[in-house]
Write the structure tokens for this entry.
Amino acid sequence: MNADTTAAARTAIERTVAAIRPGTVASYGEVARRAGLPRRARLVGRVLREAPESVPLPWHRVLRADRRLAFPEGSDAYVEQQRRLAAEGVELVGGRVPERYFNVDDDLDAALWGPE
DNA sequence: GGCGTGACTATAC
DNA sequence: GGTATAGCCACGC
């Protein structure tokens, strides 16, 4: 497992992001950790940026650890993400997502890594 | 192979 | 609550 690690990491990240339940959000670090890739938060952002639209991914459910969006406020991407979140009932308060929306469901790990 | 950069995070002040 | 700094790792030049 050498050069494949990054490709495998990308797959794991995509699967983890896709597993985030609608109406909830998770931080980059959280996604990385659940994907079995601790300290790879930046890689998560890279994967989402590189991800083609042919692979629909709920990237809008991923935010920074400070509960703010990863984009500058007012940017197109920021507005788009905010719009998608609002469509799922997740609203930004003061530019931040309330902590209660963060996905802390333990069942998510089981749904991912339990039944292989 | 060094160096800067980034959809990040934790810690310190 | 905020800014500053260091650590982190993959990528491109």
Observations:
- Chain A has a mean pLDDT of 88.
- The first strand of chain A starts at residue 26 and ends at 27.
- The radius of gyration of chain A is 14 Å.
- Residues 27-29, 32, 39-49, 59, 62-66, 69-71, 77, 81 of chain A lie near DNA strand B (CB under 10 Å from a C1').
